[in-house]
Amino acid sequence: MVARPDLSNDILFEIFSRLPTISVGKFRCLSKTWRNLLSTPHFIKSHLAREKARHQYLIIIPRCCSTRSVEIIKINDTVSKKISLPGRWNMIIGSCNGLVLLLSDHDDDNEELLLVNPITLEQAKIPISPLALRQSESFSLYGFGHDRVRDDYKVVKLSYELSDQPGLVYTDIFVDVYYVKTGVWKRLNNLPNSSSYDHFYTSSRALVNGAIHWLAASTRSGRGFVITAFDLVNETFFEIPIPVVGVDVKCFSPHFIVVLGGCLCLMDCKSNVEWANILVMKEYGVAESWMKFRVYGYGNFAYFKPLSFIGDDCDAEFMSVVEARGLVVYNPKVGIENLVALRARGKFEDGGTFVESLVSLASLRS
C-alpha cells in the first residue's frame, strides 16, 4: 500500500482558514504542527478577513443588578449563548476584529474596563488611566479600535473637568490613549477643536474607517452638532460632514452615533414623538451620501439602538436593542417588528456587534 503524502502547509492553511473559530481552536489541540500553523499572525489575519465577510454576532448586556454575564447570538440565528464574566458590566464601548471592550461605571469613582474575545473567552482587565480625572468631578467618553500600521489596539479616553461657571459646561479637554501591546497609558497633545463644542454626547461612539467618532453639541458653530473623529494611526482629530439633504441641522436632535451595516449611523429623535429618523452615511466622508429612513411606534427612543442590517441593503430589516422589549427585528418598509427570543428576560443595558476571530490578547503582548 502506497502511503499518502502529507498535505502541504499551504493547502492546510486554505482549509483551516475557512473553518469557524471554534473548529480551528479544536484542531490546534490535535497537533503541535497544526497549533504552530494556526497560531501565526498571518493565519489569524487571513482567518479574520474571511470571518468579516460572514455573519456577525450580537452581544447583549442584560439589565440586572446581580448579573455577571452577557449573551451572544449570531445574526440570522435563533439561539443565544450566555457567557459568564467577572464583574458587572453596563456598557459596550466597542468591538474591533473580534475583541469587545466593556465598561463598568456603577461606582462614581471606580470605573472598570474589560477586553474580551467572546468566542475564545480570553479576557484581560484594562487598568484605569493614572492620568484620569476624578469621575465624580469630570465628564468622559471612551472609544476602542485598531492601529493598522502598528498592529496595536488602542483604548481612547476623552475627559474634561465640569465647570462651575454659568454658561460654561467644561474647561480643558484631555485625551489619554492606552496601548494594548505595551500596557501603557499616554496623554496626547493633539486635541479636538473644543472651542466650537458646547458639550459631548456620552451615550455612543462609532468605529468606522480606522477612526473613532463621537457626537458633540455645537450651537456656537451654527450647525447644532458636529461629528468629531479620532484617527487611530495618526492620533489626530478631524470632523466628518453632517447631513446636508433632507435634514434641518439646527433642529436635529442627535441621540447617538453607531455603526450600522459598516457605515456611520445617526439617530434623530425628539421627546414624546412616535417616530425617529435613522441616517446612514453610505460613502464615508461624503456629506451628500447620507440616506434617511424613519422608524415608528416606540414612543421613547432613548432606549432604541440599531445594531445590524439583516441582508446587504440599507433599507432592509435591521436588528435593534430596545430597553423595554429586548432584541427586535424591525422592518422600516412596513413598520413591523418581531421579538428575538433570548435567555435573559426583562430590560437590557446595551447591545453591540462583533465578528468571530482568533485574535489573542496574550500574543499581542508577547
What ranges have pLDDT less than 50 throughout 5 or more consecutive residues? none
Please report which band the strand proportion falls in: under 5%, 5-15%, 15-25%, 25-35%, 35-45% or over 45%. 35-45%
Distance N terminus to C terminus?
46 Å
Q: What is the number of helices?
A: 5
Indicate the radius of gyration in whole angstroms: 21 Å
- Mean of pLDDT: 79
Anisotropy-based shape: globular
Q: SSE string, helix = H, strand = E?
A: HHHHEEEEEEEEEEEEEEEEEEEEEEEEEH
What topology emerges from the helices and strands here?
Blueprint: H1 9-17, H2 21-28, H3 32-38, H4 41-52, E1 57-62, E2 69-74, E3 80-84, E4 91-96, E5 99-107, E6 110-116, E7 123-126, E8 138-147, E9 152-162, E10 170-179, E11 184-187, E12 199-200, E13 206-208, E14 211-218, E15 224-231, E16 236-240, E17 254-260, E18 263-268, E19 275-281, E20 290-296, E21 304-309, E22 318-322, E23 326-331, E24 336-340, E25 348-354, H5 361-364
Antiparallel strand pairs: 1-2, 1-25, 2-3, 4-5, 5-6, 6-7, 8-9, 9-10, 10-11, 12-14, 13-14, 14-15, 15-16, 17-18, 18-19, 19-20, 21-22, 22-23, 23-24
Helix pairs in contact: 2-3
Characterization of the model:
Strands 12, 13, 14, 15 and 16 form a five-stranded antiparallel beta sheet that branches. The chain has a four-stranded antiparallel beta sheet with strand order 3-2-1-25, with no helix packed on it. α2 packs antiparallel against α3. 34% of the residues are buried. With 366 residues, the protein is mainly beta. The chain has helices at 9-17, 21-28, 32-38, 41-52, 361-364, and strands spanning 57-62, 69-74, 80-84, 91-96, 99-107, 110-116, 123-126, 138-147, 152-162, 170-179, 184-187, 199-200, 206-208, 211-218, 224-231, 236-240, 254-260, 263-268, 275-281, 290-296, 304-309, 318-322, 326-331, 336-340, 348-354. InterPro entries: F-box-assoc_dom_typ1, F-box-assoc_interact_dom, F-box-like_dom_sf, F-box_dom, SCF_F-box_component. Residues 7-46 form the F-box domain.
